[in-house]
Design goal:
- The chain is an alpha/beta fold.
- It has six helices and five strands, in the order αββαβαβαβαα.
- Helix 1 packs parallel to helix 4 and helix 2 crosses helix 6.
Length: 183
């Protein structure tokens, strides 16, 4: 997961917008919403920085207190409100997958503060931060978990919902580029 981010860093890319699909844990979210990742909880059991050393040979202990660029995030939320885009903000929980979660796992993830759950984005964000990049993340909410109405998750449904969110995601990406191009 980290290799493409490393290639971008070698090409002197200093800012990165990561996008993924995620399942909603927050009952206020609906399929098709976009979630600005404000923070994350890494439950993947792996970290791309394990074994990585800084130039002086010390382990890569990276400060993640402000991993996701708050200024750009605020800008995107403001644009979304002005334009009527379905953008919310929240905490992304990263799990290893490749299976969808059990009901007990979903209840736990919500209890610990997760708004959405996915199997990607977090390793790339960690490595990008280590390489000095500014990072933002946007998750397309493709399915919802509702304890009152549990139902199976279909991968086809996830793909269909992600596809329907493309126009709004395109607007978010354009706005991110607009923010990044501003002085």
């Amino acid at each position: 997961m980290a290799f493409p981010v490393g290639v971008l860093a070698c090409l002197v890319v200093r800012r990165l917008l990561l996008c993924n699909a995620a399942g909603a844990l927050n009952p206020a979210y609906e399929p098709g919403f976009l979630m600005l990742v404000r923070d994350h909880i890494n439950l993947m059991g792996v970290n791309p920085l394990r074994g990585v050393r800084d130039a002086d040979g010390t382990p890569a202990f990276v400060d993640l207190s402000d991993l996701y660029d708050a200024g750009c995030g605020d800008f995107l939320l403001g644009k979304a409100q002005a334009e009527g885009w379905p953008l919310v903000e929240g905490v992304l929980v990263a799990v290893s997958g490749p299976s969808y979660e059990t009901g007990a796992e979903l209840r736990f993830l919500r209890l610990i503060g997760g708004d959405a759950v996915s199997m990607s984005l977090v390793p790339e964000a960690l490595y990008a931060r280590h390489l000095g990049m500014r990072v933002n993340g946007v998750s397309v909410i493709t399915n919802i978990w509702d304890l009152r109405r549990p139902r199976p998750v279909s991968h086809e449904e996830v793909l269909r919902t992600a596809s329907s969110a493309v126009p709004a995601l395109r607007d978010i990406i354009r706005s991110w580029l607009e923010y990044e191009a501003s002085p």
